[in-house]
């Protein structure tokens, strides 16, 4: 029923109550040294962007660290090889605002960064991020606007860092999904068979 929906800020705030003092104190408008130490350890993050077709979230990962910290207001994120959809990059061109959630396996908290991104193709910068002689196509230069940590409740509830509890049974493979979506025009079994080696060969 319509009267079961929250439609204004006052009602929403009344539903949850006041913000606890630590939840406000943890917020910074720059990469505080405590947050810098945390981010420097991260090898994986989720990148949120928004553009003409709406919001998007996609993963980013590297051997570590994932990002390069230039200073307390600037991060560099190399755009490694992917599927060439470039959804995030298209969005950055339309709207530079981005958000990142950095995760570290075994750690319940996550660190969230909000900022504005620009796409750089500076040859020297790209070369500085090369792995095995392969440079990224571009690098996101992210100006930091806000940083804070997320409490561990979501990780604890999901027991994300307990892999023994998360089986693959019933989870479709990439090949099975492609076969289903293309009415078997793509051979899902063949795709799955060749995928691990293809990913190793094209990691960078």
TrEMBL record:
Transmembrane segments: none
Highest rank taxon of the organism: Bacteria
Record-linked InterPro entries: Pyridox_Oxase_FMN-dep, Pyridox_Oxase_N, Split_barrel_FMN-bd
Matches recorded under Gene3D superfamilies: Electron Transport, Fmn-binding Protein, Chain A (2.30.110.10)
Domain annotation Pyridoxamine 5'-phosphate oxidase N-terminal: ranges: 32-151
Protein name per UniProt: Pyridoxamine 5'-phosphate oxidase family protein
Species of the source: Zemynaea arenosa
């Amino acid at each position: 029923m319509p009267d079961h929906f929250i439609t204004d800020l006052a009602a929403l705030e009344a539903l949850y109550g006041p913000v606890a003092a630590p939840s406000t104190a943890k917020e910074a408008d720059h990469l505080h040294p405590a947050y810098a130490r945390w981010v420097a350890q991260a090898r994986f993050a989720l990148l949120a962007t928004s553009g003409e077709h709406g919001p998007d979230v996609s993963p980013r990962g590297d051997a570590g660290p994932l990002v390069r910290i230039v200073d307390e207001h600037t991060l560099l994120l190399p755009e490694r090889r992917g599927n060439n959809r470039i959804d995030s990059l298209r969005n950055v061109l339309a709207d530079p605002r981005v958000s990142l959630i950095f995760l570290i396996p075994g750690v319940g908290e996550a660190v969230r960064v909000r900022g504005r991104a620009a796409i750089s193709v500076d040859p020297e910068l790209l070369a500085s991020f090369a792995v095995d002689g392969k440079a990224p196509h571009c690098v996101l230069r992210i100006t930091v606007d806000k940083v804070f940590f997320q409490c561990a409740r979501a990780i604890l509830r999901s027991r994300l860092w307990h892999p023994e509890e998360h089986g693959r049974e019933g989870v479709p493979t990439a090949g099975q999904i492609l076969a289903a979506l293309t009415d078997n025009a793509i051979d899902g079994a063949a795709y799955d068979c060749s995928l691990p080696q293809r990913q190793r060969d094209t990691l960078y």
